[in-house]
Tetratricopeptide repeat protein
Amino acid sequence: MKGFLPKKAILLLAISSLFPFYKAFAQEASDSLYIRAQLRQVEQMLYAEPDAAEQAALHALQYANAQRHPWGQMVANLTLGMVCLTLQKNEEARVYFETALAQARSIHDIKGEINALNNLGNYYFVKEDTDQALAYYEQSLALEEQHPTPNLAASYLNIGLVYRTAGYPEKAKAHYLKSLAVETGYTPQTKLHAAVSLSSLYLDEGVPQMALSYADTALWVARQLHSDEGIGRSHSLKAQGWLAQGLFEAAISGADSALYYLPQGEPRYNAYICKAEALAMQGQLEKAEQLLLQEAPPQDTALSLGLRRDALQQLYQILKKAGDPTGSLRYLELLKVAEDSLNARASKQELTRRLVQFEAERKEKEIQRLEQQALIKDLQIQQRNFLIAAGALIASLLLSGLYLFFRQRRLLAAQENLQIRLRWRRAQLNPHFFFNALMSVKTLILAGDTNKASRSMSQLGRLMRRVLESSNSEMTTLEDELQFLKDYLALQQLSTEFEWQITVTPEDLDVEDIQIPAMLLQPFVENAIEHGLRYLEDGQRMLRIHFEERGSQQLAVSITDNGIGRSGAKAGKHPYPSRATEITQDRQKLMKGKFSYEIIDRSMEDGSTAGTQVAFILNI
């Protein structure tokens, strides 16, 4: 006879002992009133309406997720895990507990971590993986002993139950006693189950006096809780203690009290056995037999035969202990008949299984034969289709080859046409550049400044050489473009007084490898000087050109002047014809996304013109 706690009761114990955790945390989380209310509702509904409790816990988790509340998410996941364990949704419970553990550790919540570890231990205990359960319980207990929580008593009890199941009664007893020794924070359910477990353990060890003492403790707590099942288990343990002491009348009375309170099913089994054995020891064998056999229904089913076999086995043991060899021998014979019936039933089931398996294998072989015939026909059809498909493929390849050949020719012709158009636009730009440069030299000659005119002719010669060298290529390196701009600006300074500055960011930019469209910037630099700076009457004329790398694929270029601006140039006294913008727009269309640019009119705080900026984005 055993009085230890079944797994269902262990699960309920673990869950009921953990709810004070939420009350403690709710006080610390002033912004979690709604979550606290939901979790209290779950606590109230868990045993009576577990399905409704699950919905309430899910609602709490959804609310915590919507509010991005880490503490609320953690406790909602813990609650859902407990509810799922109650509903025997074990794998879902494990996921919720593991999520809660990760969340507790991420927010450094020791109490939450303890609770999650303890519940993972409960999960593995239910799965009968005692080693893994003990690993989690011990992690939880180590933290809990450093940071005591209301769950400390339950943690000691859980580890004791696992040690008991694993076959370590002394370790189990030590943890049961530690559970009872916790003076504050424990729940009455924890104390009840600790006392029941100790009483059962002492019965197994043959120490009935200690078993009765702890059974009395369990009975007192169960009455405080108004727990019928707890009262019934306590009476059953007391009955077994009295039986071990030879107090048969007290044992029968205690068993009757237990049967009055205990629900139908497994919890009543120990009380029946205890009462039957006490009756047998008093010589009331017929009553003992009737008591045990009434639980075994006469139907010829595996369940009823198994119950009958168990009852006969108990009667055999009782009569053998009572010193009735004739009676024990009779029940031993009946036990053998019951076991033979079970074996015969199992043999019949095995024969039926083999017949079904044989028929299935025969049909499988027939299916395989038909499949082979179908496969042969399929192969013949596939061979014929292959020849047809091969011919069609060869024909399609020939047609595709011809199509690709003529398409490639069209693409090459289109590419060549594009290059011709780009060169044509470049060819339009070069005379425009040379004409404006010669006009600057002419201005110096007419002014009689032969020295500047001479230097400008030398610089113009270098610029013309650079332009002619790059005339066959649409692209140039950033290094060459920088040098070209510097030479051009030096040339323009001979005829127009202004300052200029060219900067590159970062300073170590690899200008030798970066390719940009040739002479793309010069027309806008020229416009800035001719249309903006030349007619600025007051202040220092300044032109800034800045290059900046953006990522590894783009280069930003800005050309900024403090001249009279576009509005001033349009309304100015010296109109200056220029086709540079029109040519650049055509180049932009032909180069299809190679670059983009924007012209920005700058202004002062008072609304007056502050010059013009041209911003380029080049794809490099």
Q: What stands out?
A: The radius of gyration is 48 Å. The first strand starts at residue 475 and ends at 477. Residues 1-31, 296-304 have pLDDT under 50 and may be disordered. Residues 452 and 494 are 6 Å apart (CA to CA).
